[in-house]
Design goal:
By secondary structure, the chain is α/β, with parallel strands linked by helices. The protein has two domains: 128 residues, Aspartate Aminotransferase, domain 1 (Alpha-Beta Complex), CATH 3.90.1150.10; 221 residues, 3-Layer(aba) Sandwich (Aspartate Aminotransferase, domain 2). Helices cover 43% and strands 16% of the residues. The strands form three sheets. It has a seven-stranded mixed β-sheet, with helices on both faces. Strands 1-2-11 form a three-stranded mixed β-sheet. Strand 7, helix 8 and strand 8 form a beta-alpha-beta unit. Helix 6 runs parallel beside helix 7, helix 12 packs parallel to helix 14 and helix 13 packs across helix 14. The longest helix has 18 residues. The radius of gyration is 21 Å and the shape is globular. The structure holds pyridoxal-5'-phosphate. Pyridoxal-5'-phosphate binds next to helix 4.
Length: 384
């Protein structure tokens, strides 16, 4: 069969300025990285707490390879389960304050495998319009009626729930929104869910290890308990993998029904060990304290430069608007030695292009002030 259509499709993607290319970094996810022989300030990593290069995290990963080898060798329900996984799940449950937890091989797998296991024909899912793609795909897989609600609009949720004749009802939201850095109104969502007997699921990919008095995430921040706590091990927890924390029956059900858990090889031992040690460090040292100091300094610099900043967290988008300006602004920052990503549709809606900047606990004052100087120049040049 001819595959000519591929080159046509690719040409169309390129003509719209939406072509994506891999960029190759030759160092770890540290505040200063090397690319194409040049040094850059890394201002877009999800290694928010800097734990991916923490000596204890690296050591535990290496030791796990010495003991268990490099790969899991099977899915969790076949030969892939060792005491490493059991202890990580116990640790996550204890950290999140839930009865149990289940680990998946990525956050994406956790979302698609959980939503599709819990919801089906005749059920209703209410999903925030800015939710992550893995939530959207989980909703599609479930075959439930999906209602996408305007961003953080609890009145809309209540209206839909009141009118619903569906069997089960699920409200699903990012805790911290991945491209905007704002926080879901979880107390109001839980209140309305209780009134209409709906389940609440929160994706804490960007909140785990960072938000709340104990850095447990969005529930901890607001002092409320969602029914289903999803998170990833790939961001502040410096590894790979995803998890669901909740009551024992929920986790037991997912172990039995969730296809992305059952039919995928378990995470490799160094991933499991790294995440486990990262949780220990978060509980012992609270590295998020330094991250919040950096957020305050950076945000003040941006506001002083005239940016309108809506973010409440370490994810701080600089809105650029159309795709052309987004690409040009990202390229200019690259020239000035700042490693960032221009974010275009379909990741964000048309006309809402942005440079997604993120802070790390390991950024120094010097890193932040150099980044701000470059950003000011780009703001002036492109009238942002
Ligand atoms: C909100 C959100 N949920 C889920 C995921 C998926 O997590 P992972 O990268 O571990 O697959 C991400 C990360 O890209 C995310 O931003």
């Amino acid at each position: 069969m001819s595959m000519d259509w591929l080159s046509n499709e690719l040409a169309e993607i390129k003509s719209k300025g939406l072509y994506r290319e891999l960029r190759t970094i030759k160092t770890a996810q540290t505040p200063r990285i090397k690319k194409d022989g040049r040094e850059y300030i890394l201002l877009s990593s999800n290694n928010y707490l800097g734990l991916a290069t923490h000596p204890e995290v690296k050591r535990s990963s290496i030791e796990s390879i010495e003991k268990y080898g490099s790969g899991a060798g099977g899915s969790r329900l076949t030969t892939g389960n060792t005491d490493l996984y059991d202890s990580l799940e116990e640790k996550i449950a204890d950290f999140k304050g839930t009865e149990d937890a289940i680990v998946f091989s990525s956050g994406y797998m956790a979302n698609i495998g959980t939503i599709s296991a819990l919801m089906t024909n005749g059920d209703m899912i209410l999903s925030d319009e800015l939710n992550h793609a893995s939530i959207i795909d989980g909703c599609r897989l479930s075959r439930a009626d999906v209602k996408v609600f305007p961003h953080r609009d609890v009145t809309y949720i209540a209206k839909e729930l009141r009118a619903s004749k569906n069997n089960k009802k699920l409200i699903v939201t990012d805790g911290v929104f991945s491209m905007d850095g704002d926080i879901a109104p979880l107390p109001e969502i839980i209140e309305v869910a209780e009134k209409f007997d709906a389940i609440v699921m929160v994706d804490d990919a960007h909140a785990t290890g960072i938000l709340g008095e104990h850095c447990r995430g969005t529930g901890d921040y607001f002092n409320v308990e969602p029914d289903i706590n999803m998170g990833t091990l790939s961001k502040a927890l410096a590894s790979s993998g995803g998890y669901i924390a909740g009551n024992s029956e929920l986790i037991d059900y997912l172990r039995n029904i969730s296809r992305s858990f059952i039919f995928s090889t378990a995470l490799s031992p160094p991933d499991v060990a790294a995440a486990s040690t990262a949780i220990d460090i978060i509980r012992k040292e609270n590295p998020a304290r330094k991250l919040w100091e950096n957020i305050a300094i950076y945000k003040k610099g941006l506001i002083d430069a005239g940016f309108d900043i809506q973010s409440e967290t370490q994810i701080i988008p600089l809105i650029t608007g159309d795709t052309e300006t987004t690409l040009k602004a990202a390229l200019e920052l690259d020239k000035l030695g700042i490693f960032v990503q221009g974010i275009r549709p379909p990741t964000v809606p048309e006309g809402k292009g942005r440079i997604r900047t993120t802070l790390m606990a390991t950024h120094s004052r010097q890193d932040i002030s150099e980044a701000l100087i470059a950003i000011r120049k780009v703001k002036e040049k492109f009238n942002l």
